[in-house]
């Protein structure tokens, strides 16, 4: 029976969410990951666009396990006349899920500034009723207000802030009664689970029955994370969040086996194998379908033309693409299922 180290998993997660990695801003998180792989002693390949593929060992029937390290966020669309920043989303970030969040603005010459995502006007007490009732919209009534003494577009530009600068949101990580609350559980919690499994492979606590790659992608949130993969891969297993909701069976305490997403069903036979592995491991799992706005990096590899089977698993997660929440039990069940799959 495999053992899950929840303290180590949460430590991996804390380290990763401390590194801002809005999609395309991958260098810092990639360098951190390569350092950890060097410490573990795994050989790896860095892709040109950003992404890391590690070889974990084993022989025959190559399996690629993937989790992504890019986060949703914002980019400066325009510097407003009052010095605030009009923004555009990077990935599926919606205004109602991020208004009042603290942010960091990264300029292209390496400067970092702090600020807050605000409604405009930003004080309820002096805002007319019709403006208070309007839905938040990045184009018209939501802006990033800098923690700087700026009163004009010229003041902001004098700081070196310009169109195309990246804006990362504060994760706000906390744990209460086993519930993990943070931005970017999608997908750094899954990456933490994968890193725990890799540590156990290196320590001999997981014995591989086939050749395995670990693929840490950097562009999943915009749909082309694993558009390249090693040519010998036969099976792809994505680890990603399983969104909870009124029509879902997914639960924060459980691991979900994905049946279908918004693009197409997962491979029937491989999914059945994953389901059987969940039964054999005795994990608390459910089968679920995720529509109409969901996909994993499995989809990317298939659309790129690779001849693979594909399946996906992940912890039940509430408030997807917002201030997300899962439970340590969900991560544990995901880890135990992954360990079972790797040893089959």
Q: Would you tell me the structural class of the helices and strands? A: alpha/beta
Order of helices and strands: HHEEEEEEEHEHEEEHEEEEHEHEEH
Overall number of structural domains: 2
Distance between the termini: 13 Å
Fill in the CATH topology of the largest domain: Aminopeptidase
CATH architecture of the largest domain: 3-Layer(aba) Sandwich
Total beta-strand segments = 18
**Residues in β-strands, percent:** 25-35%
**CATH level 1 class label of the largest domain:** Alpha Beta
| CATH homologous superfamily caption of the largest domain | Zn peptidases
Radius of gyration: 21 Å
Describe this structure in words.
The protein is an alpha/beta fold. The protein has two domains: 6-71 and 184-342, Aminopeptidase, CATH 3.40.630.10; 73-169, Beta Barrel (Elongation Factor Tu (Ef-tu), domain 3). It has eight helices and 18 strands. It has helices at residues 6-17, 27-40, 129-133, 153-158, 185-202, 268-281, 297-303, 328-342; strands at residues 43-46, 51-57, 63-68, 73-79, 85-90, 102-106, 112-119, 142-146, 166-169, 174-176, 179-182, 212-217, 235-239, 242-243, 255-260, 285-289, 309-317, 324-327. The strands form three sheets. Strands 1, 2, 3, 12, 13, 14, 15, 16 and 17 form a nine-stranded mixed sheet that branches. The protein has a six-stranded antiparallel sheet with strand order 5-4-9-6-7-8. A hairpin with a 5-residue loop joins strand 4 (73-79) and strand 5. The longest helix has 18 residues, at 185-202. The model has no long low-confidence stretch (mean pLDDT 97).
């Amino acid at each position: 029976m495999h053992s899950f180290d929840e303290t180590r998993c949460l430590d991996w997660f804390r380290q990763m969410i401390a590194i801002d990695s809005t999609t395309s801003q991958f260098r810092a998180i990639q360098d951190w990951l390569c350092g950890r792989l060097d410490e573990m002693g795994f050989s790896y390949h860095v892709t040109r666009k950003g992404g890391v593929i590690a070889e974990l060992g084993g022989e025959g029937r190559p399996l690629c396990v993937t989790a992504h390290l890019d986060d949703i966020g914002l980019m400066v669309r325009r510097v407003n006349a009052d010095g605030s920043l009009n923004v555009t989303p990077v990935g599926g970030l919606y205004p109602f899920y991020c208004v009042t969040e603290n942010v960091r603005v990264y300029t292209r010459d390496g400067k970092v500034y702090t600020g807050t995502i605000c409604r405009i006007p930003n004080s309820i007490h002096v805002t007319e009723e019709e403006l208070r009732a309007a839905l938040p919209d990045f184009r018209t009534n939501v802006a990033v207000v800098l923690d700087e003494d700026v009163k004009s577009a010229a003041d902001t530009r004098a700081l070196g802030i310009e169109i195309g600068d990246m804006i990362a949101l504060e994760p706000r990580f906390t744990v209460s009664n086993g519930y993990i609350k943070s931005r970017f559980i999608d997908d750094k919690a899954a990456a933490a689970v994968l890193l725990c499994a890799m540590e156990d492979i290196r320590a001999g606590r997981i014995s591989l029955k086939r050749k395995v790659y670990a693929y840490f992608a950097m562009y999943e949130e915009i749909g082309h994370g694993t558009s390249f993969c090693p040519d010998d891969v036969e099976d792809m297993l994505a680890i990603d969040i399983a969104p909870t909701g009124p029509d879902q069976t997914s639960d924060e305490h459980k691991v979900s086996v994905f049946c279908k997403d918004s693009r197409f069903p997962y491979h029937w036979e491989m999914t059945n194998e994953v389901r059987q592995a969940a039964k054999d491991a005795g994990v608390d799992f459910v089968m679920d379908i995720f529509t109409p706005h969901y996909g994993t990096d499995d989809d990317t590899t298939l659309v790129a033309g690779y001849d693979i089977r594909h399946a996906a698993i992940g912890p039940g997660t509430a408030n997807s693409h917002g201030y997300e929440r899962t439970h340590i039990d969900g991560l544990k069940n995901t880890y135990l299922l992954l360990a079972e799959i790797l040893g089959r």
